Amino acid sequence: MALFGSKKKKEEKKETPKKEKPVSAPKETKASVAVEVRDVLLRPRITEKAASLTSGNVYTFDIRQSATKKDVAAAVKKLYKVTPIKIAVVNTPAKRVRMRTKRGFGKTTASRKAYVYLKQGEQINLG
C-alpha cells in the first residue's frame, strides 16, 4: 500500500499546438456610438460670467449628468461645425433649501456644465 500515491506512475502530458484565435474587429466604445446632440447638450448657459468668457473663445453649456467630455466634443462638432481644443466639465451639487410654504427642507437640482474652448478665430453663434 502506497502512502500519498508515491508508487503511482506519473503520466506525461503531451503538448498540443495552441490554436490561434482569429482577430476580431475592435469593440465599439461608448464614445464611438453616434451621439445625439439633444441627449448631450441641454442649452447654452447664458450668464454674465459666460458672456465675458465668450470674448476669450470659451463657451458654456448645460449638459446631461451622464455626458462625457468626448460626447460633448462630438455634439459641439456636429451642431456648430467647430472643433473644440479643450473641454472642462464642472459638477454643481444640489443645495439644501428651506421651504417657506411648508415645513421642512427641499433641494435645488444638481446640474453639470461644460466649458468648451475653441481655436482663435473660431466662434459659435448662440443667438
Q: Give the strand content.
A: 15-25%
Number of helices: 3
- Assign the CATH architecture of the domain at 37-117: 2-Layer Sandwich
Which fold name is given in CATH as the topology of the domain at 37-117? Alpha-Beta Plaits
Overall 3D shape: elongated
CATH superfamily placement of the domain at 37-117? RRM (RNA recognition motif) domain
Radius of gyration: 28 Å
Task: Say how many strands there are.
Answer: 6
Mean pLDDT score: 85
Written overview of the protein:
With 127 residues, the chain is α+β, with helices and mostly antiparallel strands. The chain has a domain at 37-117: Alpha-Beta Plaits, CATH 3.30.70.330. 17% of the residues lie in helices and 24% in strands. The chain contains three helices and six strands, in the order H-E-H-E-H-E-E-E-E. It has helices at residues 37-40, 48-53, 69-80; strands at 41-44, 58-63, 86-92, 96-98, 105-107, 111-117. The strands form two sheets. The chain has a four-stranded antiparallel beta sheet with strand order 1-2-6-3. A two-stranded antiparallel sheet has the order 4-5. Strand 4 (96-98) and strand 5 form a beta hairpin. The model has no long low-confidence stretch (mean pLDDT 85).
Task: List key phrases describing it.
Alpha-Beta Plaits; 6 strands; alpha+beta; 127 residues; two-stranded antiparallel sheet; four-stranded antiparallel beta sheet; elongated; 3 helices
